[in-house]
């Protein structure tokens, strides 16, 4: 089984990248399942329900979320209607939506789990993701050997620790949130594919998908201003993971960094080089 995992989709540029590049890539590489982080798709802050439907129609099978899961009000109600959108599983049980999904891909059963890290987020009431991971992965492996664990966390140390904690237990442990494609894609002991961060789908020359000028000014002056979506050098970033159908162990993991030509809306003055 080939699974394409894509970094955070940021704004209209990120949606444009998915629209232009995903289906051709999926067809060329024989991808069976596409998982993407969608929590920055609506102007970089959260995921609106209509944008979620649009991205699904473009070929994304499962979208994971993080600390911005409910930044858009329509997602509070909408997430319960779409099993393909996963909020963190360690949110309280009363929170709408779900953090785990079983699905059939071809003739193979797959489990996808999504959790949120403990550091740099205002989430004191969330369950410990390591305890959540231990119980959920163990239970999932009684159903299927193919378990994909997405960990939305700010601290690289926490993501590396999770990778080692689940080595040999999950088919893949994949980090999201930082929006920078890391250079450590590898197979851990026990056959677990790992990367600290998937990067982003959107402007590669930017600060997290936003225009450089405004973001640099914030750091220089400490004055908060509205962020502006960037359109400079769009890319589709992530990893392509091949998993053995029988054992559930990862066979390979390859970084994806595809340059994409995206049409710029006429009202946008900033254009890519």
Describe what you observe in this structure:
This protein has six helices and 14 strands. It has 273 residues and is of the alpha/beta class. The protein has one domain: 4-Layer Sandwich (Purple Acid Phosphatase, chain A, domain 2), CATH 3.60.21.10. The strands form two sheets. Strands 1, 2, 3, 4, 5, 12, 13 and 14 form an eight-stranded mixed sheet that branches. Strands 6-7-8-9-11-10 form a six-stranded mixed sheet, with helices on one face. The model has no long low-confidence stretch (mean pLDDT 94).
Q: Quick one: overall form? A: globular
Look at the structure and give the mean pLDDT.
94
Number of strands: 14
- Pick out the low-confidence regions: none
Number of helices: 6
Would you tell me which CATH topology applies? Answer: Purple Acid Phosphatase, chain A, domain 2
Report, as a whole number of angstroms, the end-to-end distance.
37 Å
Largest sheet: 8 strands, mixed
What are the salient characteristics of this protein?
globular, 27% strand, eight-stranded mixed beta sheet, 24% helix, single chain, 6 helices, alpha/beta, Purple Acid Phosphatase, chain A, domain 2, six-stranded mixed beta sheet, 273 residues
Please sum up the structure shown:
The chain is α/β, with parallel strands linked by helices and 273 residues long. It is built from six helices and 14 strands.
């Amino acid at each position: 089984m080939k699974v394409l995992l894509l970094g955070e989709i940021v704004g209209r540029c990120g949606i444009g990248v998915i629209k232009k590049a995903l289906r051709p890539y999926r067809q060329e590489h024989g991808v069976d399942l596409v998982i993407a982080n969608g929590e920055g798709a609506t102007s970089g802050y959260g995921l609106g329900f209509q944008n979620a439907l649009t991205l699904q129609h473009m070929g994304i099978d499962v979208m994971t979320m993080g600390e911005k899961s409910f930044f858009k009000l329509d997602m509070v109600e909408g997430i319960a209607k779409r099993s393909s959108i996963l909020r963190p599983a360690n949110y309280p049980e009363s929170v709408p939506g779900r953090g785990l999904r079983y699905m059939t891909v071809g003739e193979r059963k797959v489990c996808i789990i999504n959790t949120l890290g403990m550091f740099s987020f205002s989430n004191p009431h969330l369950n410990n993701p390591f305890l959540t991971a231990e119980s959920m992965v163990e239970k999932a492996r009684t159903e299927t050997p193919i378990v994909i664990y997405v960990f939305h966390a700010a601290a690289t140390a926490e993501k590396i620790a999770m990778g080692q904690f689940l080595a040999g237990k999950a088919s893949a442990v994949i980090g999201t949130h930082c929006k920078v494609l890391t250079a450590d894609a590898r197979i851990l002991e026990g056959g677990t594919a790992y990367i600290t961060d998937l990067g982003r789908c959107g402007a590669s020359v930017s600060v997290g998908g936003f225009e450089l000028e405004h973001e640099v000014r914030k750091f220089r002056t400490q004055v908060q201003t509205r962020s502006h979506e960037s359109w400079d050098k769009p890319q589709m970033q992530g990893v392509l993971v091949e998993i053995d159908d029988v054992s559930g162990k990862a066979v390979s993991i390859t970084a994806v960094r595809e340059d994409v030509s995206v049409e710029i809306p006429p009202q946008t003055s900033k254009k890519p080089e």
